[in-house]
Inverse folding.
């Protein structure tokens, strides 16, 4: 099959915004066939499948038309990522489609064309952010130049020593802190770009499909970067009790 024309269904659930899209091709030659984004208090589990059904119905697309299912790997909301991955795996297995996984931070940076350093930032709660750095190549396509990290906004700003474009909900939440420290070096992306996009994710998934980089249905897992509260509580429960030192109070 011509990979340029392969239709990909993408699911983005790393943040409170549920986004689904149908795309073909890559960032170089792709097309957004249809996209739908919903933000609100309704959980992903209650609206994701209905959003997919609506998008496919309104686009006149059937399951036999789709060549792959793409899903946001994170980092992001632990619950959102698990719902997205479980849904994508179920659809891929049921419809006999390949599964593709894309970093949420990568899909944010893919929206940007700039000579500046790009920093994708997502609110990690607990006064921390998930972040990664990118630079645009000669074609204007953002390429990752770091590994994803979780840290405080202050530590992130301290690591930046050149003009930077900040994108993502972390830039919106901690914009005042980051701009106060970075001064004229910081530029915050327009408000409409801060939510992760399934359409952007789909174009990156098209590049993975061209390279044959698909996920194993049994082994594909989200990128959490840090342990969830449940995992941390489990580790704490399993840790051996600390011995009290005589006379230590």
């Amino acid at each position: 099959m011509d990979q340029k024309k392969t239709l990909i269904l993408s699911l983005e659930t790393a943040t409170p915004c549920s986004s689904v899209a149908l795309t073909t091709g890559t960032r170089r030659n792709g097309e957004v066939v249809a996209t739908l984004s919903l933000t609100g208090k309704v959980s992903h589990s209650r609206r994701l499948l209905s959003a997919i059904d609506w998008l496919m119905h309104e686009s006149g697309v059937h399951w036999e038309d789709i060549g792959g299912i793409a899903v946001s790997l994170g980092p992001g909301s632990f619950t959102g990522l698990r719902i997205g991955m479980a849904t994508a795996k179920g659809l891929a297995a049921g419809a006999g489609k390949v599964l593709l996984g894309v970093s949420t931070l990568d899909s944010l940076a893919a929206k940007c064309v700039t000579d500046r350093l790009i920093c994708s930032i997502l609110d990690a709660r607990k006064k921390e952010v998930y972040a990664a750095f990118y630079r645009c190549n000669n074609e204007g396509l953002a390429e990752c130049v770091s590994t994803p990290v979780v840290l405080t906004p202050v530590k992130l700003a301290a690591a930046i020593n050149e003009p930077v474009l900040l994108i993502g909900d972390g830039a919106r939440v901690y914009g005042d802190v980051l701009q106060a420290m970075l001064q004229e070096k910081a530029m915050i992306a327009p408000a409409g770009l801060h939510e992760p996009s399934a359409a952007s994710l789909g174009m990156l998934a098209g590049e993975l499909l061209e390279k044959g980089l698909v996920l194993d249905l049994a082994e594909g897992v989200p990128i959490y970067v840090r342990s969830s509260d449940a995992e941390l509580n489990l580790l704490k429960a399993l840790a051996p009790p600390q011995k009290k030192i005589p006379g230590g109070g």
